[in-house]
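Exercise 7b. C-alpha cells:
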C-alpha cells in the first residue's frame, strides 16, 4: 500500500510513514510506537467530565463527543496512534438488537440467540446504520494530522458469546453448548456475525481509518482445536473482507497464548499478545511474517516508577529482535490507572528505543 492509494484518499504521506504504520509493515522505525487499548476512557478525568450524564451507547453515536474522546489520549500521552472510541456491540445495536451496556456489568442482550429462529435478529449492516461513525472519523482524520487512527470491531466469537449468553460470562456455558451441540447453527451464527463485522470495518476504513483491530476478548476460553474448527473460519472471513484495502489488520485476544499461531493464520498482519507470554516466545508461536503488539501487564502501572520502567525494559528486551513491534499493554488500561503513569510510560519507551 502506498500513501497515494490509501483508503478513501484520507491517509496522507505523513500518516503512512508514521512509526506505528512502519511497525505494522515490519519496516525500520525511529522509535518503538506506543498506543494503549482503552487509552480513551475512564482513566482520564477529562473523559469522565465529557461523558458525565451520557450513556455509553449514546455517547458512541455522537460524532463530536467521539472525536473529543478519541483525541484526549493523543493530546495527553503523545501516543503514536489513536483508537476510535466506540464499543464492540455498536454494530449489533445499529442493526436493531435489543441490548444495553449496564454500568458495572457490560453489554446485556434482552433476547439471547439460541435457536435458528433467533438468527432473524441479525440483518445486514449498511453504512447508513452507522452514519455517525463515518461522520466522526471524517472529523478525526482532519484533527489527527500525521497520527494514524485505528478502527476496530469485536470478533465473531466474542460477539456470539454476548448474544448467546445474554451478557458477559465467566464460563461461556451456553456458547459452548451451542458450538458443540449444533455446529451447523453455530457456523451460521458466526458467518452472519463475520458479515456484519466485515461491513463495520469497511465503513471505518472507507471513512479514513489507517488500520483496524479485531478484538476477540473471550476467545481464550477455547482450546486450539475448537478455535481452528469453529472460530477461525469466521475470523478469517472478516480479515479477508478488508484485505483489498491494504491497511494493517491487528488481531488481539486475552488469554490466547495457546492460540497465537492460529490467530496469525486467520489473516492478521499484527498479532497482539497479552502479558502471559513474553514477546520473543509470542513471536516464535506466531511465526515469521507478522508484526507483534504488546505486552506490559496493565497492573504494573500501579507500582513504583522504577518498577514500571524495569518491567517495560523487560518487554522491550524480549521484543528487541522482532521485525515489527508495537508497544502496548497486555490488555486494556485499568480504570483507576494514574494517567501520568501512562504519559511517563510513552516517554520512556520512546526514549529507550530512539534510533
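Sequence design result:
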Amino acid at each position: 500500500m502506498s500513501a497515494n492509494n490509501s483508503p478513501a484518499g484520507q491517509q496522507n504521506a505523513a500518516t503512512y510513514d508514521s512509526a506505528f504504520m512502519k511497525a505494522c509493515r515490519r519496516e525500520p522505525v525511529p522509535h518503538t510506537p506506543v498506543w494503549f487499548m482503552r487509552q480513551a476512557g475512564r482513566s482520564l478525568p477529562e473523559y469522565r467530565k465529557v461523558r458525565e450524564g451520557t450513556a455509553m451507547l449514546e455517547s458512541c453515536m455522537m460524532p463530536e463527543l467521539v472525536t473529543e474522546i478519541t483525541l484526549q489520549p493523543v493530546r495527553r500521552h503523545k501516543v503514536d496512534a489513536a483508537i476510535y472510541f466506540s464499543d464492540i456491540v455498536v454494530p449489533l445495536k445499529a442493526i436493531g438488537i435489543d441490548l444495553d451496556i449496564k454500568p458495572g456489568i457490560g453489554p446485556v442482550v434482552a433476547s439471547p440467540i439460541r435457536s435458528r429462529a433467533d438468527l432473524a435478529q441479525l440483518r445486514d449492516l449498511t453504512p447508513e446504520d452507522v452514519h455517525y461513525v463515518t461522520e466522526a472519523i471524517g472529523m478525526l482524520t482532519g484533527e489527527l494530522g500525521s497520527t494514524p487512527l485505528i478502527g476496530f470491531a469485536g470478533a465473531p466469537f466474542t460477539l456470539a458469546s454476548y448474544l448467546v449468553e445474554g451478557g458477559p460470562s465467566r464460563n461461556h456455558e451456553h456458547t459452548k453448548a451451542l458450538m458443540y451441540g449444533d455446529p451447523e447453527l453455530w457456523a451460521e451464527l458466526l458467518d452472519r456475525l463475520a458479515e456484519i463485522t466485515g461491513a463495520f470495518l469497511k465503513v471505518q476504513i472507507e471513512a479514513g481509518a489507517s488500520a483496524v483491530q479485531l478484538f476477540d476478548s473471550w476467545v481464550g476460553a477455547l482450546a486450539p482445536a475448537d478455535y481452528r474448527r469453529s472460530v477461525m473460519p469466521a475470523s478469517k472471513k472478516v480479515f479477508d473482507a478488508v484485505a483489498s484495502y491494504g491497511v494493517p489488520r491487528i488481531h488481539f485476544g486475552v488469554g490466547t497464548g495457546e492460540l497465537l499461531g492460529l490467530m496469525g493464520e486467520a489473516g492478521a498482519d499484527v498479532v497482539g499478545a497479552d502479558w502471559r507470554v513474553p514477546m520473543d516466545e509470542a513471536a516464535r508461536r506466531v511465526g515469521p511474517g507478522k508484526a507483534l503488539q504488546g505486552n506490559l501487564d496493565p497492573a504494573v502501572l500501579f507500582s513504583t516508577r522504577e518498577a514500571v520502567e524495569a518491567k517495560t525494559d523487560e518487554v522491550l528486551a524480549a521484543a528487541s529482535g522482532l521485525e515489527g513491534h508495537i508497544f502496548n499493554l497486555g490488555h486494556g488500561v485499568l480504570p483507576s490507572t494514574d494517567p501520568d503513569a501512562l504519559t511517563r510510560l510513552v516517554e520512556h519507551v520512546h526514549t529507550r528505543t530512539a534510533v
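Instructor comment: The mean pLDDT is 95. The radius of gyration is 19 Å.
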